[in-house]
Write a structure and sequence with these properties.
The protein folds into two domains: 133 residues, no CATH class; 272 residues, Tetracycline Repressor, domain 2, CATH 1.10.357.140. It is mostly helical and 435 residues long. The longest helix has 35 residues. It contains 19 helices and no strands. This is Protoheme IX farnesyltransferase, mitochondrial. Converts protoheme IX and farnesyl diphosphate to heme O. Belongs to the ubiA prenyltransferase family. It is found in: Mitochondrion membrane.
Length: 435
């Protein structure tokens, strides 16, 4: 109790000393004003300005009284000792001697009044800005579904699920609805797992690009731990559901696709422009998975579907990356549209023509009837024509037309494949004698 009383006495003495300091500053200001009217004039007014500034800073830092301690007696002794030392230090501070040489300017007198106000407003503004940024980073449960949808790239996930369902529908054999539902759920979970891991690795680089700087991890809307936990909670049940609910080959393909996307394609984007070919392989696997889920095996029709998806991605992505090629260097990405402009246009044209050849090979493999290459020839030649325009002109207009054409070309081509699908047992019935 004795130490506490001493501490309270020191605090009251501290308050009186701060009051004396305030009075001294007011007296100094009055003296300066009187000097301007013909009294003693300072020889160096900048010294008085520096002194008053230091005095007000010490006031702003030391005027706050210390709270009443609730700790042990040892802490009370140390706090009382610090308070006494600060009081002695403040008492030892004395104003410099003023000499008379010239009048201070009105501007200098105004600065004396405004220094502490500016410093205090700057500190308050900084605290309010920090508080605002902290509020923006708070995670609300109402915003969580939208953040997770952006994190999993819901549009890309929908494309993966749709191409997987197309591969399942084009596979020979009876239609199994429960198997299709398990396949779609597992594929969606696997895609939702791969995309957050990709964004987790690319946070420092995505923050430098205009197209990716608003991603949830870059803006701090969700923590990296929560993003990785979400990816794990999607990957483990997704792979397990496909391996045990559909077939082991399907589970192995999904696990390989996640590994290829996160551990090969993602780091390769900053090493070599060959990442585009790795990304095309990743995009070609979903229809193969759908075929495998329905049949449990890999056949010629499986690789034909994968080849169509593989070739389609080059006109699609090369035209898209051409319009964004100025955005990749700040992120450090080695894209074909940045490193090799001529190769980017040539590859888009080459794989546009490859779509015509793959459509012709479908009836040769007894995958579709001969109606399919006849009908699909027009749309395949059209995307090849736009690829040729992109190759020769190489401007924003030609790349944009090729990109938008690829958006409707793929679903229309898959629909034609499904419509012209080869009926089951046609070749076998023609080659086998009737019983």
């Amino acid at each position: 109790m004795k130490e506490r009383d001493e501490l309270r006495a020191s605090e009251s003495q501290f308050k009186h000393s701060t009051k004396d300091l305030k009075d001294s500053t007011c007296a100094l200001k009055e003296r300066l004003i009187s000097c301007s009217n013909g009294g003693d004039i300072a020889k160096k007014p900048t010294q008085s300005l520096i002194y008053v500034t230091q005095l007000r800073r010490s006031l702003s830092q030391q005027v706050k009284p210390k709270p009443e301690p609730t700790a042990s007696s040892v802490l009370e002794k140390t706090s009382s000792g610090q308070a006494k030392a600060e009081i002695n230090e403040m008492r030892s501070l004395s104003p410099p001697s003023l000499s008379s040489s010239r009048k201070p300017n009105e501007k200098e007198l105004i600065e004396l009044d405004c220094v502490s106000v500016i410093e205090g407003s700057a500190e308050v503004g900084k605290e309010s800005q920090d508080e605002k940024q902290w509020k923006e980073m708070k995670l609300h449960l109402d915003d969580l579904p939208g953040i997770l949808a952006q994190l999993s790239k819901i549009k890309l996930t929908a494309l993966v699920v749709s191409t997987t369902s197309a591969g399942f529908a084009l596979a020979p054999g009876p239609f199994d609805l429960p198997c299709l539902l398990l396949t779609l759920v597992g594929t969606g979970l696997a895609s939702c797992a791969a995309n957050p891991i990709n964004q987790f690795f690319e946070v420092p680089f995505d923050s430098n690009m205009n197209g990716t700087k608003n991603r949830p991890l870059v803006r701090g809307q969700i923590s990296p731990l929560l993003a990785v936990s979400f990816a794990t909670c999607c990957a483990v049940p997704g792979v397990a559901l496909l391996a045990w609910g559909v077939n082991p080959l399907m589970g192995a393909l999904v696990a390989f696709n996640i590994f290829l996307y996160t551990c090969c394609y993602t780091p390769l984007k900053r090493i070599s422009f060959a990442n585009t070919w790795f990304g095309a392989v990743v995009g070609a696997i979903p229809p193969i998975r759908g075929w495998t889920a329905a049949t449990g095996s890999l056949k010629a029709g499986t690789f034909l579907l994968g080849g169509i998806l593989y070739s389609w991605q080059f006109p699609h992505f090369n035209a898209l990356s051409w319009g964004l090629r100025e955005d990749y260097p700040p992120g450090g990405y080695c894209m074909m549209s940045v490193m090799h402009l001529a190769l980017c246009r040539c590859v888009a044209l080459r794989h546009g023509l490859a779509l015509v050849g793959l459509s012709t090979a479908a009836p040769l493999l007894d995958f579709t009837t001969w109606t399919f290459p006849i009908i699909s020839l027009r749309i395949s030649l059209y995307i090849s024509y736009l690829g040729f325009r992109f190759y020769t002109q190489a401007n924003q207009k030609s790349s944009r037309r090729l990109f938008f054409c690829s958006l409707w070309h793929l679903p229309l081509l898959l629909l034609l494949l499904l419509t012209c699908k080869q009926p089951q047992g046609v070749k076998r019935d023609q080659g086998e004698p009737r019983q």
